[in-house]
What does this fold into?
Amino acid sequence: MKILLTGANGYIGMRILPQLLEMGHEIVCAVRDETRLSVDKETRQQIEVIEIDFLEEPKENVVPQDIDAAYFLIHSMSSSTQDFDEMEAKTAENFNKYVAETQIEQVIYLSGIVNDNNLSKHLQSRKNVEDILYQGNFKLTVLRAGIIVGSGSSSFEIIRDLCEKLPVMITPKWVLTKTQPIAIRDVIAFLTGTLGNEKTYNDSFDIAGPNVLTYKEMLHKYAEVRGFKNWIWTVPVMTPKLSSYWLYFVTSTSYKLALNLVDSMKIEVVAKDTRLQNILGITPHTYKEAIDLAFKKIEQNLVISSWKDSMISGLFVDNLEKHIQVPKYGVLKDYKQLKISHPEEVLERIWSIGGETGWYYGNWLWKIRGFMDKLSGGVGLRRGRTHPHKIFAGDSLDFWRVLLADKKAKRLLLFAEMKLPGEAWLEFKIDESNVLHQTATFRPRGLRGRLYWYSIVPFHYFIFGGMIKNIADQKNAS
It folds into this structure.
């Protein structure tokens, strides 16, 4: 079967792609920017990639005519706090236009549980997208899920941040709202199980795990699985805006996502339909099992995708290609080089930078800079990295975005997503003479940008000098 996979570089898209390939399907991945599809070379050779921005008017002859089915996995909740519902409606309308002239038979859409009469803006938008997709010239299967729990999922990472960092919490009253979490592997099982299944055509199904829990109970059960206790008190005075700030500063979520999540957390999200479990013969995992499975993936460094790697987790709005050419004029630079004796070892250290590894020198200063960035509305350091040793173009790396990760050319190029009065790049490259080049480039925005650069030059002297030395010399790396 030939399948169009939209949102292929998103959290769900990256999880279902290897499953579909293993099932023997031919996959066409639709992405906005081909350069940031985070798959290895072997996977890249097995798929076809097309570039489509579903917010723009459809272009002709982009989608192959012989598509049999498609997954609609496009969401815009993290992109905006105001008009994401209009954006989601537009993507659905344009999707219908793109596939109108193909031979497509089925579209599978992952939506949200919408059983409450008073829906949040987020859930109402998901329902609206369903209605638009039902107007397409195909059989639609809608899977309505609640909170998805898995390594790298936004819900799991937020719960993880809260519990691991705050053993004592003063929380908003929405933590008493009921929800029904589902394990990511069950979501993938439902998504693949409905493919080509005529019993699921033109119908909508709730999918959820067996446990109905309040958010407070979810936090307690997470701590129980991890082997510690936490204490939670709720207060009725925390407004939605204050709740959003609370999530934003304590967890790795963006403010836009935090605001939209808080709006949805006031709504009870409980499944009323278990028909699909019976049709497909799937027994969903419990919430505790989902947490345990997530940590097994984390401990084995097998996290396939993370919501933090999506462009909407940071400040990046342009295509990567626009920034790969580092400017030479009108910029300020900190350039250092060192002759190295073991280039392969040095390359591995470069590829492990950030996250748990840190930045090889003055990590406490990097943390202070991350905290300052968070205070000013930036992404801070909490995003970390998805894998400790693998990097792909488009990945988030603390408060940087990976523009280029070419191990064969021994070059790593990062673009800053922190709040800055200008644009910043950080590049590592090992040349043919085994010389390590480290270049920090800053293109200031007006006088304020230049004042910013010169004010931190003394810190650069120590930080960048110590960093290149420790990257080059494993004995001193810390």
User: Anything to note?
Assistant: Residues 182 and 209 are 4 Å apart (CA to CA). The chain has two domains: 2-300, 322-472. The first strand starts at residue 2 and ends at 6. Confidence is low (pLDDT under 50) at residues 77-81.
